[in-house]
TrEMBL record:
GO terms for biological process: phosphate ion transmembrane transport. It comes from Streptomyces aurantiogriseus. InterPro entries: AAA+_ATPase, ABC_transporter-like_ATP-bd, ABC_transporter-like_CS, P-loop_NTPase, PstB-like. Residues 32-271 form the ABC transporter domain. SUPFAM superfamilies: P-loop containing nucleoside triphosphate hydrolases. This is Phosphate import ATP-binding protein PstB. One of its GO terms (cellular component) is membrane. GO terms for molecular function: ATP binding; ATP hydrolysis activity; phosphate transmembrane transporter activity. The keyword Transport applies. Keywords: ATP-binding, Nucleotide-binding, Translocase, Transport. It comes from the Bacteria.
Amino acid sequence: MASPSEAPVSASGTSVPQVSYRDAPPLITPVFEVGGLSVFYGDHEAVRDVNMTIGGRQITAMIGPSGCGKSTVIRCFNRMNDLIPTARVAGKIRYHDEDLYGRDVDPIEVRRRIGMVFQKPNPFPKSIYDNIAYGPRVGGFKGDLDDLVEETLTHAALWDEVKDKLKTSALALSGGQQQRLCIARTIAVKPEVILMDEPCSALDPIATAKIEDLMEHLAQEFTIVVVTHNMQQAARVSHRTAFFTTDVGAEGERHGRLIEYDETARIFSNPSDQRTEDYITGRVG
Ligand SMILES: Nc1ncnc2c1ncn2[C@@H]1O[C@H](COP(=O)(O)OP(=O)(O)OP(=O)(O)O)[C@@H](O)[C@H]1O
């Protein structure tokens, strides 16, 4: 992780988050290239014409008011929208220069390589150990499972808290521990990308801080895309930020649009679009 740079002064001088922003690594190794992406639910075009490139081993945050399509877009990155019968995706998402929605692409393999962590911690109703071991077992892992479980829980900064109760139910953990377990479960199958859809919204500030520390640590190895309602969080953890909002057409139709996508320092200190400025300063949204 690049060392944080000094927080630039807000262009507006108003209440933008005052944090040290991270230096954004260059986008020389794109993981996702999104072109003309639109997502429909039935006849409703929920998100229109999104274009963005997401770089490897960095954290990309998606922010914007409720209903602007952040979850809809993040779900496209591992084809979770395939599971919604009315959803239809148009446009292109290239993953390492391959069409993610290509005819020969197996969505199950996509979801192994591109894992997802949800808003509400959702451990399996199994032991802590089995939560981690489940994915590797199903995937035919041949190595030492005990070692893998320890290594994975250590990686997710949870080992010390759970090493003496690996056989107890994951549901007995606190919410924050459950969420770190879900992150551990995701990384146990060695994905490249971790998608996080509001991973801290059900957690208290201390548990949230632990997840943010973990994200920073994991970004050395994984590509992370995170949807968050918490602008402070986006400012603290991400290298790049995408701001979405809802456009209202002449007939009252509403479409989510990507308004601005840039280095996080730039979005929060000197955005180029007035709508971004209004949102991050709390004037709208
Ligand atoms: N399964 C679905 N079926 C039909 N419409 C949906 C579905 N999921 C989302 N939508 C609609 O798509 C639009 C974008 O919703 P989405 O949940 O992606 O926004 P969001 O920015 O993530 O919102 P929030 O911040 O409140 O979670 C909204 O109009 C929403 O009602």
